[in-house]
């Protein structure tokens, strides 16, 4: 019987969970292995199905190739909090192109409650299945990590259902001696060193590389063709310490004004990049000198810089925003937040400490048109309960 490629493993629920390229699923589910050669059982010597070819779409959508040794397993029980019981595989990274993977997890049994009570406990059966068909402690494996868009799943497997012995975020895994040449070549050539990730909405693949101690760059590619790149001041960084948030996609938020000049089709998403930057005296944001997290917002299609936002590094407090006109880079709109310890009484506060927000609007040549000043205010009812809070206008200065 001809069986699907044994070295390709894909997480169950991928089509449901993955609507974009930088979003991790909240959990995972999987099925018992299908009737096929698995990486731990590559088939008899000389069997041409023992090391099947990798569909090109998997290599194109991969974000990393990692060679690992399994050092141990741990069961993590989240059922008291309605989560699953999982087996975590701890991995020693031997070599990596792209972000290394230090652990993967497989569900043993679900948690939560159904209309008929707790779900059946499948953990004993799943332990046996994993022991027979998944990663083995002490063994070395090749892992291919990445994400497929939902519509790509069937084409990736030539119309067949993908094999289901898997662990997020793997697209494939092989025993040490069974990895196909494209996977080994990707590691040797550091194909994923720029940390690529595919963005289905635009059809582009985005990634980043460090240029030097003071700069890094974003790159966008359409297939093998360079679409755009941008050099960014500072070092790549995130507020939560997760590498996946160095670059992320989101709608126009954070108080940005409509993009000008207006686009025929307003973009649904911008690409955001996190940096850690040391700002000197008289910096462009008008904030005190020091180290800040700076979030840049760019157009997805051409990388045009739309806005920069500055946050403190310790508390993540928003301090300033600069928005630029599309195409020209001329200043369009700014916001500054000042934490003051004087004249609070004069503006109606209970003491001299107050928070001031200053918005400035600029014309198409960058000249200042209008300034609006606000103060942060809390309102309480007769019993002392907070009713509302936010910025209320003061006279423009």
Task: Explain what you see.
- The chain is mainly β and 397 residues long.
- The protein has 2 domains: 14-188, no CATH class; 197-394, no CATH class.
- Helices cover 8% and strands 40% of the residues.
- It contains 5 helices and 19 strands.
- It has helices spanning 14-17, 56-61, 123-133, 153-156, 181-188, and strands spanning 62-77, 85-97, 103-109, 140-146, 170-175, 197-199, 204-212, 215-222, 225-233, 235-236, 247-250, 270-279, 290-299, 305-312, 318-324, 331-340, 354-362, 368-380, 386-394.
- Strands 10, 11, 12, 13, 14, 15, 16, 17, 18 and 19 form a 10-stranded antiparallel beta sheet that branches.
- The chain is globular and about 75 Å long.
- The N and C termini lie far apart (80 Å).
- Residues 1-51 have low confidence and may be disordered.
Task: For the structure shown, list the relevant keywords.
5 helices; disordered N terminus; 19 strands; globular; 397 residues; mainly beta; 2 domains; single chain; five-stranded antiparallel sheet; 40% strand
State the separation between the terminal residues, measured CA to CA: 80 Å
Order of helices and strands: HHEEEHEHEHEEEEEEEEEEEEEE
Q: Main beta sheet: strand number and arrangement? A: 10 strands, antiparallel
Average pLDDT score: 81
Shape: globular
The portion of residues assigned to helices is under 10%
Cα Rg: 26 Å
Structural class: mainly beta
- Beta-strand content: 35-45%
The total beta strand count reads: 19
Number of helices: 5
Number of domains: 2
Q: Which regions contain 5 or more consecutive residues with pLDDT less than 50? A: 1-51
